[in-house]
Structure formats: C-alpha cells, structure tokens
Design brief:
The complex is a heterotrimer of chains A (about 210), B (about 190) and C (about 550). Chain A has about 210 residues and is mainly alpha-helical. Chain A has a domain at about 80-210: Up-down Bundle (Methane Monooxygenase Hydroxylase, Chain G, domain 1). Chain A is about 50% helix and about 5% strand. Chain B is about 55% helix and about 10% strand. In chain B, helix 1 runs parallel beside helix 3, helix 2 runs antiparallel to helix 3 and helix 3 (about 55-90) crosses helix 5. Chain C has about 550 residues and is of the alpha/beta class. Chain C is built from 23 helices and 15 strands. Chain C has helices spanning about 5-10, 25-40, 55-65, 85, 105-110, 130, 135-155, 160-185, 190-200, 210-225, 230-245, 280-285, 290-295, 300-310, 315-320, 330-340, 350, 370-380, 390-400, 405-430, 460-475, 520-530, 550-560, and strands at about 20-25, 45-50, 70-75, 95-100, 100, 115, 185-190, 260-270, 355-360, 365-370, 435, 440-445, 485-490, 500-505, 540-545. The longest helix of chain C is centred in the C-terminal third of the chain and has 27 residues, at about 405-430. Mean pLDDT of chain C is about 85; it is low at about 140-155. The chains are: A mainly alpha (about 210), B mainly alpha (about 190), C alpha/beta (about 550). Chain B: Required for correct functioning of the GINS complex, a complex that plays an essential role in the initiation of DNA replication, and progression of DNA replication forks. GINS complex seems to bind preferentially to single-stranded DNA. Chain B: InterPro entries: GINS_A, GINS_bundle-like_dom_sf, GINS_Psf1, PSF1_C.
Chain lengths: ~210, ~190, ~550
Amino acid sequence: MAAYSVPAGVCTNYFNIDDILASQEKVPCVFNAKVAALGYLDQSTTDVDLNVGTKLELPFWLARFLQKGARNIVTVDTPKTYKEGYRNIFTADPNVVDLHRLGPFFYLFGGKLLTLQLPDAEEIADVLLKTFQGRFRKIMDGSQNALHADLTSQTSVLDDQERHLFAAGQDSLHGFHRWEKRETEKLSTSVMVANHRKRKRIGAMPTAS
Amino acid sequence: MLAEKALDLIRELQRTLSGTLSPYNEDKIRQVLEEMQNLYDQNRDRAHYAAGQADVFAAIQLRHAAIQRNKRCLLAYLYNRLEQIRKMRWEFGSVLPSDVRYNMCEQEVQWFTQYNRQLANYMKTIGESGGLDLTQDMKPPKTLYVLVRCIMDHGEFETQDGNIILLKKNSQHYLLRSECEHLIRQGILEHLVH
Amino acid sequence: MLIKDFRRDFYDVLQHQRVLILVAFDVDALCACKILQYLFQCDQVLYTVVPVNGLQGVENAFLENAEGIKHVILINCGASVDIVELLQPEDNVRFYICDSHRPVDIHNYYNAVQVKLLMRGEELSVPSYDEVFRDDESSESDTENDDPELGGKKKRFDDEAILRRQERRRWKENRVKLLFDYTKFTSFGTSAALVMFELAWKLSKDTNNLLWLAIVGVTDQQIHYRTPREKYMEDVLALQVHVSRHNQRGDDDENLLSVNCLRVSFEEELHLSLYRHWSLFDSICHSTSVACKLKLWSLKGQKKLHEFLAEMGLPLAQCKQQYSAMESTLKSEVKEKMQTFMHKYGLEIQDIILPSFTMQYGYKSVLCAADHVMMCAALLESIDKSKMLTDYFLDGTEVLQRSNQEKMDSGVDAAKHQLRSMVKQIQSFIDMHQIISAGPFLYVFIQEGAADSRFFSHPQCLIRLARFTLEAHCNVTRNKRARILPLILGAPLMNEEGSTLVVGIPPLDTDDERKNFFGKAFEQAAESTNTSAKFNSFESHVIEMKSEDKSKFFDAMIGLLQ
C-alpha cells in the first residue's frame, strides 16, 4: 500500500492528529514571572497582566514552552490523574479504571509529561508501565477471542492507544478466520468505498422518506 | 484561550470517517490566520521596547508559542487532508465521487490532478512493455479469471478484447481478473469464490 | 439439430469463445448451470449467466446481452418454441439448447445451422422431415399461383396439376394431424443436470460435487412431478453407478475417504419432507402421500397418526421434538417400523420409501437429495418482497453450495414455511368444499388476499400445491370419478393485481405417465374465447390471465374437454 501512515503515538510526528490532541491536555502551572498584557488568559481576574504566582491550567504545548530551560516562566505541577492518589488506584487494580474518561490519551499524554522534569516523573513512568501491563492481558483476551460479540462495553473504557491495539487484535483474528475459511483470496470492495457508500445512503434517506 | 480555533480543525479531522472528506473549512482557516496575524502584529509592536522588560518579553514568547501552535495545526489539517485524498486515489480510482470532489478546495483539486498525472506517468515508465498498473493485483492473484456477480446496474463495459458486456444487477460473469479487479474494489462487482 | 457428440460439437466449439448462458428458474436448470460453470472455469471459457423467467425474459436477456455473442446456451428453456423465430438473431449466432421440456419444436429440431440440441435423441419422437417440411414448397406455390391464370387462358384442366394439388392437400392434412399429435401432450425428458453431468464425465472432469448436482437435478424432476417413476428409477440406477465409482475405494483403512470430503451414498430414503431438519411428527404431516392417505388435516386423521406412531412404539414426545435430538435407537428403527405397519393404514411402499441419495460433508448432519431440492426450490420461489427475482436465483445458487451453512439454514426455514402454508391452504380447500367439479375436470381458486397466497404465485410451488390438492381431494371425496378427473388450480399473482396464475395437472389415474394435455387445451380455449392469456411460462400448462376472464375461459374449457 502506498499510503504512509504514522502509528498513533509511537513517535511524535509534527502532523500527527493524536499527538496534537494529546498535547492539548491541561497541566496546572504557576507563573514565576509577570507576563505583560495577557491577563485575559486568566478569567478569574480582571488584571491586565498575568502576575507572579497566578495559578492557571495551561495546555501542555504552552506549559512546556514556557517552562523550558532558561525561560522558566512557569512552574509545572503534576496533573491530578497522574498524582499519587490516582497512582494508587492504578496500582491497586488497573483493570477497573475508565481510562477513556480520564484520558483519552492517557499513555500518550503521560509520556509527554515525563519531558517536563516533574519531581515524581519516575513514579509516573512506573505507573504508566504497570497500568499498561495490568490491562494488556484483558485487552488481548478480548480482542483475540470475541469474534462476533458486541464489544462496546469493553472498548468504551479503553484509552485511545489501547483501542488501536484492540482493533489490531480484532483485525488479525478476523484475518485468521478468513484464512481458515479460505476467503483470503476473495477480492473485496475497498473499505473506503464501502464506507463512502454507506454514508451516502444514510445521507440520502431523510430526503427520500 | 489561544489556538482554540485551530484545534477545532484538528478535531474535525478526527471525526471524519474513512471514505469521506469533510468540506474544506475555509472560514475557520481564515479565522486562524487572522488570529496568527494579530498575535504577530502585537509581538512586532512590542519587540521595539521589549529589551530589559522581562514581562513584555515573556508575553512575546507566549504569543510566539501560540503562533507556532496555530501553524502546526493548520499544516496538520492540510497535510492530513492530502493524505486522505491520496488514499482515495488508490481506493476509488482516478475519478473521485462527486461529493468528495465537491468538498475539496481548488488547490486540492489541482494537487489531485497532478498526483494523478504523475502516478500515471510513473506507471507508464516502469515494466517491460508499456508500463505496469500498480493499482492492480493488490492481493497476489490466484487465478487468471474470476467469477463475479454484479451488485448494481452499471451499464455496458468494454473488455480488452473489444467485447461489450452488460453489467446488470445480479448477472454473473466469468471475466479476466485484471479487467474486473477495479470494479470489484469499487463495489460494482462481487467476487464469488467457491 | 440433435448433437451426437457433445464433446466435439458443443464443448470443443466453445473453447476461447464468449458464451451467454440463459437459465430457467428451476432447480434442475440451476444444477445443470453449475455443472457447466465448473467445466467452463476449468477451461477458462468466458461466460455470462443470466437467469430468465419466462419467454419474455429470454427475449429481453438476449437483446440486452447479445452484443458480440455468438454462442448462446439455453438451460431448461427454449426447446419448445422456435427459438430463431422468437429471437431473430444474426446468422452467425448459434443456440445450444439443453432443455428437459418436451415436445421440442420441430423448427429447432430440423434447424441444422443455428440450433443445436443437447438431449438424448432416443427420447424424442419427432415426425420425420418429409412429413412436416417440403423442400419444393416454393415451386409448388408458384405453380399454384400460376394455375388460375393458366386455367383462365387455356381453359383446360391439367390432370397432373389436380393430382398434385390433391396430393398436396392430403399432405397438409396429414401434417396438421401429425403436429397435433406431436404437440398434444407436454412432458419432460432427461434432466438437464444429468445431461451436463454426462458431458463432464465424458470430459473426465466429473467430481463428487458435480455428481451431487446431477442427483439434485434428477430428484427435482421427481419432486415436481416431471418424470414418471420408471424414468426416475432408470436415472437413479445410472447415477448409482457413478456414486459407487466415486465413493468406494476398497475397505481397508488407508483408502477411506477423509471426513472432510463430500460423501454421497445411495439410500432407500424415507419419503418424508425435511424430516432430518424438523420433527418427525411435523414432517409426516407435511408430506404429500402420507398426509393425504391418513387425511392428516382432520381431527380423525391426527388420531390415526397418533395410533400409527403408538403402534410403531415411537413416543409422541420423541416424535414432536427435533429429529436430530431423537433417541438414536428410535431413529434407527423408524424406517423399518414404518414399513412393517404401513399396510394397516393403507400406505404403500412408494408412499414411504423413495430410493434416493444422501450426502455428508465434514461432521455436519446428513442431507438428502429431496430436501436439498425443497430448500433450493423454496429460495427460488421466495416471498421476500425486499428482493428482486434475480436475488432469488442467486439465493438458489448459493444454497446448492454445500459449504454455505447459513444459506442452507435459511433454505430449510423457507422450505418449512412453504410446506406449512401449503397444508394450511389444502385444509381450507377441503373444509370449505372449494374444490368444484365442472364435469370434465375439477377446479379450485385461491381467493385473492388469502393468507400465504403469495407463495402460490410461483409456478413450481403452485404445481406442487395442485398435486397435493388433487391427491387430498381424491382421498376425501365420495365421487368415484375423482381419480380420472384433471385439476385446474388458480392463484392470484403477487405482483400484478387482477391477474391469476392458472395451472392444470392431469388426473391421478394417468398421473404416472406425467403427460399433460393442458398446454394445448389452454391455448385452444384462449383462442376460442379471445382471452388475453399470457403463455409466458416455459411450461405450457402454466398460464397467466386476467381474473375477470375466468368464467368465460372456463366455459370454453368445459366445452373443449367434454
């Protein structure tokens, strides 16, 4: 296939949609320096400037830029879901957590946080790994064994990357079954065309009725 | 907040399903560009007296970050749309469905035409005699001929040897695989394997 | 023209050509088509398959697809009409007709250039060429035209001319009589599927799969009352030879067929519809012969059946559950016990036993040929309104594909549904005394809007219903003449309001000849009354007409048959 695609979140790609969305997640910041004329960013005050000590939730891309190196305009704190309280929950039983609600880019954003030189970076890295390890078996189980079942209840609590993983597992499962039934040689309508047609039909329905 | 509108564009991309192309959001893009222009103007005005004033300098840096962010979002928007259009060339063939074409902006149409031309030229140059159709045999072919069934009325179809076949819904044909592979991929024929 | 050597004059000619195959809507035709498709795929002959429903369909399909086509194969259609006259093809188009309908139109038979008949020659008793065609016809008519002038001029009688004219008149009379005798009865010859299978055999390309298709084709002829029992037995014997050739490989373990292969075996089958996929009880209630003999639609009949089952030692609870879940000891005894006790209940051996074949594939349950026919026929004549006629055809094709379990199941369901509504319909015929004797024949009409009448707007199903009805009627009526009366059955057409599909079947007494005179009779009745009946079907004893013309038409029929 000619199309070149980036596996979501594996590497940070400038054009990657998931990466852009993940870097929009908010991080609590405290300003170390006064910033002129940008008071409107803090909706709780009417000051013209952003004063020292202002606490603000900034998107990751901005926080990282302002914190980086000599700039040091803000001090970054760990977001709530990666703090100790949540970390304990994840370590206790990673399988019960709804990562989609907490994420949905839990791992991707978590990985980005590690570049912020937070004091608890090591613990965060640890908990990301452990959470993934803990949940991986269940994801694999589900994606490799459910052939026709409705899986929305299972996939709805998955993080975005986990969903990709789950879909890949399902894909290979269906591929295997098609191979078993000797259907692999069958030429089929391209998925894109089929989707396009389906959409068109849905779109056409209201006018028809 | 800064760069919110640019993010809307990205969200729009995320919502788009494969097989469709959302309308080129010219309006949003103009708004984003305006925001960038604003931020840039402000920075330029203040750059003159920023020296030594830490708070002004910090503000400039913050705005600059926002400009960079906006730029990234815009480029990602355009790039991902092009990717989608390119994929469509391989899935739909050289002529895109009218609703897809309708949603493309003028430059995208131009790009598509050029891509089409380059691909065709490239395919003409490779292979021994008269080129090689790369869009064919996406799966390794097992047989020279295939049995197909017509899923929809398609009208007449001329085969390479000059015969004309009427592709009417539910008729079955035994045809050269190379001739009908495109039609199968476009969902006009169904391949019957037994 | 009849083809002697199928291989040389038919198969080899088609190599490297593009072929159009027109297939009628019956199970036999489908099987034949599948066999032919397999052969063509072996040799990479390009083809197009178009299902055709009726003569109009043949015409349309030919018009639409004929471009660039030089070879047209017609399966189970086209033999009984002058195909060249109907389609007006170009001179280089050849028609190959593999059709079990008889009689074959004499023009087809004697057209040596454009029409090739793929059938067994010994089955046709076509009048000899000299009796129906005269080569000197043109010169004859010339002289005839000239005659009056000559006579006028010379004013003398030419003895020779008179003699010639007399002889000619005699010949003409003789021709009309011969043709009438020839076309008086319609019947069926060897199944198209069997003919195709024999071709495959001659090409050494026969497989167990193709054999099964041939078996299904032959069984279809039996199920739809097309061929006499002797003819069926003859074909079964021929098939049995092939079956043992393909399925026996010596007794040692090494040579055993793998379970993953298709296995076909000859069996004295219980002649009960779908019993392997139903409960024994239901199956008995929906099988023509047994249901009619025991009058199973009445309370008394039901009691009798209970008695019968009790005497055989089959617990009712077992009989009413899925046959596949029945106790295996009971299952193995059913056939034997039925034969032991049947005479007491007035049943004959051929009511219960049908020599037939079964197939097994993998570990799935056994399927018998008759059930496969029913499944396929039910899908071919489905009542699913969301689908087109051609969709039915494809469903039918797929159900013949043994690996398609999903379609098989839907076929079983459709067949059961069809049988249930058939029995319900017959019950209402009998209970309401709707079967009326018109003197020389019986007739009955299904009311428009009656429940399940949609099933009966298809010809094959209607024919089966007619046969079932006639048998049921003969078993309840006190009229001793019932067995020598034919039956006409009419049903409202699903798609066209105000139209009726009419079928005529011969009386039970002469039933086993499977000769039907209604084709000619319908034609004459329609002619004499100017009814706008449509003779679209390949079977001439099935016609369509306007409902309001019914009484007029029937008066003519009574006059005709008296």
